[in-house]
Fold each of these.
Amino acid sequence: MEVLVYLVPAALGLGLVGLLGFLWSLKSGQYDDMEGAAWRAIADDEPAAKAPPDGAGK
Amino acid sequence: MLATRDFSHYVKNVGAGLAHIDLAVEGVSCAGCMTKIERGLSAIPDVTLARVNLTDRRVALEWKTGTLDPARFIDRLAELGYKAYPFETVRAEAVEVEQSRFLMRCLGVAAFATMNVMMLSIPVWSGSAGDMIPEQRDFFHWLSALIALPAAAYAGRPFFQSAWRALRTGNTNMDVPISIGVTLALAMSVAETIAHAEHTYFDAAIMLLTFLLVGRYLDQSMRRRTRAVAGNLAALKAETATKFVADNEISEVPVAALRAGDLVLLRPGERCAVDGTVVEGHSEIDQSLITGETLYAPAERGTAVYAGTMNISGTLRVRVSAASEGTLLAEITRLLENALQARSRYVQLADRASRLYAPVVHATALLTMIGWVLAGASWHDAIVTAVAVLIITCPCALGLAIPTVQTVASGAMFRAGVLLNAGDSIERTAAVTRVIFDKTGTLTLPELDVINSGNVPADILDLAGRLALASHHPVAAAVARAAGVKSPLEGIVEQPGQGVRGELDGVELRLGRPSFCGAEDMAEQLLRLDPEVSVVAFRKGDARYVFAVRQSLRTDAREMIAGLKARGIAVEILSGDRELAVHAAAQALGVDEWRAAVTPAEKIARIEALKNQGVKVMMVGDGLNDAPALAAAHVSMSPVSAAHLSQAAADMVFLGKKLSPVVAAIDYSRKALRLMRQNLWLAVGYNIIAVPVAITGVVTPLIAALAMSGSSLLVMLNALRARRVASERT
C-alpha cells in the first residue's frame, strides 16, 4: 500500500493539470463560440494562417 | 447624395498598433458561411484577424491601425452577400458574458473536485467491507476534505451570494436551502473525519454543487444568447443620421455617436432616429410608430419629433434633444417606470416552490434529530442522521427542475421566432387568458402596400414603379415594391409635395397627388369605397390610373386570432388610431372587443381594470405609446420593428412578418409550465421515497450519491420534452 504515496499525488496532480488547462482555455476565449467550434472541427481547411486559434473574444 | 460614412465611433485600439471592430452579421448560419467570410476578409491586406463567432453571429476584425477604413469591411461583406453593421456591446450584455464565464469557471472547479473526491470515495465504499485499514480511510477522508472545502468555497459562490442577498432582505429563495445543505454537509464531514468515522459526505456536497452549476450555466447561456441576438438585431437596423458637421457640410454618422444639441438633416422618406425639435423646414410626418395614428401630421419649426417618426414630403433640420425634454416622451417614461415597479412583485414558480420547500425540509431534519434523541440515540448520531436528511433532500432536482425546462423551451421558441427578454416570461405567458393587440404596426405591417395593383394593367404598374423609384416618399416606395422593378427611369424631376414627373418615348409620365395628375374624381371614388387608403395617381399621356395604398394586415393575422380563440383566449384591440380605422381592422379579423383613440394612460387603466378582475393579460404592441402598457401587462410581446423603448419594455420580441410566433409562444409556454410542474412533482416524489430512508438513519454516502444523480438525470431528460408542442404551428 506504500504505492499510494505516489499514486494519489500523481492522480490529483493530473487532475489539477486538467483543471488548469480548462481554466486557460476558458480565459483564451475557446468557449465563446461553441457552435462555431463544432463546425470548425470538420471544416475542409482553415483559412490562411491569419486566424490564430485564440484571441477572438477581446 | 452619398455622404461619407464614419464608423470611427466603433473602432477600439487594442494595443500593438492594432485596431479592433466587432460587426453583427446577418444570415451566418453554417460552417460554409463562416469559412467564406473569414477567407474573404482575411484577403484584405493589413487585416491581422478575421474571426466569425457562429453562436453570436458576429465577426471580430483586427487590422494595423490607420491602414483601413472599417466601411471597407462592410462593403466586402455586402459583396459576399452578408449584411453587416458595427455595434457597441451594451453594458447588460457585457455583464451577461462576464457572468457566464464566472459560472463556467465555477463549474470547471466543481467538476474537477467531484471527479477527484469520487476517486477517493469509491475505494472507501468498496474497501471498508474488506481490506482497507482505518488509517487509510482517514487519509482518504482528509484528502477529500482538502479538495472539497476550497472547491466548494470557490464554486459555491453563486449560491452563497444569492442566498445571502435574499436573507438580508428578509426573503428566501432556492439558494437558501442549497447553501445550508452544502455547508452543513461539509461541516459534518469535517467533524466525522476528525472523529475517525466511517462515512463522510464530501462527495455528495460537491457533486450537488456541480449538478446545480450545470443548471445555472444553462440558464445563463440562454439569456446571454438572447441578449446577443437582440443586440445584433438592433445593430443591423443600421441606424444612421445625417449630421451637420459644419454649416453646409454633412456626414453620415451612427446614431450612437450623436449627442444632444447636434443638428441633423431629415430627408423625405427617412425615419428619424433620434428625439428632437424641428428648427427648419416644412413637411408632413408619419407618427404611427409613436401614437398609432396613421394620418400624417404637419411639421414645421418647433414641432417635436421622436425616434421612429417618418418624414414624408419636405426636408427638415432637427436639433437633437435629450430624452427628458419631449413632453410626450417624458409622460411615457414616467408611466413606464411606474408600471415596471409594479411588475417586480411577481414571484417566480421556483421561488414559490422553495418557500414551501425550505421550511418543510428544515422542520423534518429538526424533528428527525429530536426524535432520535428521544428514542435514546446519542446527540452525535442524532445530528448525523439529521444532516443526512438535509443532504438527501437538498434540492438538486428542484434546482434543475425549472432552469432546464426554461433553457429547452426558450431554444424551441427561438427557432419559432420568439426572443425572450425575461427568463420568467415563460411561466407568465402560460397563464395568459386574454391578449390585447395594438393595431398599427402590430396587427398591420409597418410598411405601406398597394392594395389594388390587380386592377391596373401590368405594363402600367411596371412603368409607375420605375417612376416611383426616383422618389423617397413612402407611398412611392410602396408602388415601386408592388411593381417589383429595379431600374429607375432617367431624367426624372421631383416636385416637392406634388410628385415626380418624367418622359418616355415623348409621352409625359406623372406620379403623385391626384391633383398633380388630374385624377381627383377617380381618387374620390376610391376613397368612397375605403376611406382608409392614401391615393396616389399615375398619368401616362392622357390615361390616368389610381393606386390605393394602405397598411395591410399581417398575412396570418386572421388565423392567428382564430387560433387564440380556439385556445380559450379572449382577444381585444386597443389602438391609438381613429375609430374608423380600428373598426375596419376589428371587423376584418373577427374581433368583437375594440377601443379606438386610446391614450397610453387609458391603455394602462384598461389593463389595470382587467387585472383587478383576475384576468391575466398579454399585451402585444410596437408603438412608443404602447411601452407603458407593455410593462403594465402580465406579460408582453413586441414585433422586431417596434420602437426601441417598447422593445425594451416587452418580455418577448418576435421576428418576421407573421404573427404566428404569438400563438407559438403561448403553446410552448403552456407545455413548458406543465413540464416545470411535472419536474417539481418528480423532485417531491423522489423526496417521499428518500426522506423516510434518511430518517431511519440507514443512508450511506453511496446511496446519497446514486439518488442525487438519478433524480437530476430524470429531471433533465423530462425537460427535453419541452422541445415539441402537440399543435406545432397554427
Amino acid sequence: MKYIIMMNTMRAGHGIPEWPQKDLQAHIAFMIGLNKELRQSGEFISAEGLSFPEQAKLVRAGKDGLPVTDGVFPESKEFLAGYWIVDVDSPERAYAIAAKVSAAPGPGGKPLNMPIEVRPIMSGPPPEML
Amino acid sequence: MTKSWDATSEHLLRELAPQVLGAVARRFRDFSAAEDAVQEAMIAAFTQWPEGGIPDHPRGWLIQVASRRLTDQVRSEIARRERETAVARETDTVVPAVEIEADMDPDDTLILLFMCCHAALTSSSAIALTLRAVGGLTTVEIANAFLVPEATMAQRISRAKQNIKASGVPFRLPSSQERSERLPAVLHVLYLIFNEGYASSTGAHLQRLDLAREAIRLTRSAKGLLPDDSEVMGLLALMLLTNARRAARTGPDEELIPLDKQDRTLWCQAEISEGVELLTAALSKGSVGLYQLQAAIAAVHDEAAHAEDTDWPQILALYELLKHVAPSPMVTLNHAIAAAMVHGPSKGLELLRALDEDGRLASHYRLDAVRAHLLEMVGDYQSSIKHYRIAASRTTSIPEQNYLMTQAARIAEREPS
C-alpha cells in the first residue's frame, strides 16, 4: 500500500537558512540518509522537496480564463516543505517513517518534532474476493 | 537450425526460467547468486532471440549463459581471495564444468516456489521474488506492474534473497509434512498476485503486465507439480472463475459495474467451464478448504445467466461452511449479504451488528457500503445515503469511491430529505 508522507513546516519558524552550519549539515545529512534508507528497504517510490514559500504563487482563473496570481498567502501558517511517497506493508510502517521525519534534527541537534501528515494514496478497483 | 521468435516464445522462455534457475542453483549451491545470473541470462535471451532465433536447446543455452556469468564471478572472487591470501590455486578445479541439458529436475520449480513463498519473507518480498525466480519476469516488468521504480523493486528482491540466505533454507524439496505446513503460504502469495492483477489491470494500465494471467500461469504450474492437492486446484478454479468476469466488471470509463448489473454475455465461458471442471475434480477429493469454497461461490454466480437466477440459498450455505473453515470478518460480511438475499434485508442488517461489535471491520468502507445497500432495500433512504457517503470517504479506491458517491447521489435525487 502506498502512502504520501507530507512534511509541513511552520511559516514563522522555517528559517532553516539561519541555522548554524553544523546544525544545517546535520539536518541535510539526516534527509539524505533517510532517502537512502527507504531506497534500501525497497519502499521508496519518490520524494521531492519544495521551494521556500517565498516562491509560492496562488493562482486562480480570471473571468477570461487567464491566470490571476497572488503572491504568497499570508494567512497560511503551515507550508508543505516536501513529501515522500512510499510503498509499505502496513499503515504502521508509514507512521513509523513519518515519526522519523518528524524527529529530524533542528538547531542544536534537537528533534524538530514537525507535524507530519500521512495519507493513503488512492488505488484502482479493489479485489472482489475475500 | 534455429526456430524463429513468435508469440509463444516469450511464454517458453518464462517456463524455462525456474528450470534453469533450479539447475544452476543446484550446481553452484548459491540460490541468490544463481538467481541474479539467470536474470541476466533471461535478459540476454530477450534481446538476442527475437533477432537471432531461438537456439536448438534453449534450456541448455540459458543454463550455459547463466553458468558462465556465475563462473566468471566465482573466478574473480577466487582471484581476489588469492591476492589477499597469496595462496595459489587452480581455479578451474573449483568451477563446475557446464553440462548442457544435464541434471534437469522436474521438482526444481516446486523447490523454488516453496523457497520464494517462505514465511520468513513479507508478502511484498515474496510476491516480487516469486514473479522473478519462478515466473521468469524481469525486474523492470515487475516494477511496472506494481508502479514502483525499478531500483526499488531490485532492492526488494535482493533483500528477499538475503532473508532467505539468513534463514538457512536448503535448496531441496521440503518433506511432505513440511510441504503441507508451508503450502498455505505459497497459495496465499499466488492469490495475492492474482488479486493485484485483477484489481488494477484496467484500461489506463493496459501497458502493464497482466498479473492476473501470471498468477493463473503460476498456479497452473503449481497444480502440475502437486496434482493431488485439492486446494491448489481450488485456487486455480477460483482464479479462472473470477477472471472470467473481468471484461464485464468495468465500463468504458473504468467505472465499476457491480455483479448484478454486469453484461453476462461478456463473461468468458471457456474460463468458467475450466473452473467448474477443476472445482468438481477438487471437491471429489474430499478435503474441502478455503479456496475450494470460494471457488464454489464464484461458480454459483458464474452459472446464473441472469442476476435474478442466482442460487442465493446455495451461496448462503457455502458461506456458512466458509465461516467454519476459515472464519474472518470479511466472510461474515459476505455471509450477511447472502442472508439478506435469501431471508430479506432486515436479516442482513441484523447480522451486520455482530461486525460492529467485533470491531475489526468497524471502520472498513465495505461494512458501510453493504449496510447502505441493505438500508436502501428496507426503504431507510436517509440512513442509506449517510452510509454510502461514509463508505465513500473511507475507501482508498478511486473507482469504488466514484461508485459509492454516485449511489448516494442517485438515492438523494429520488428521495429528497
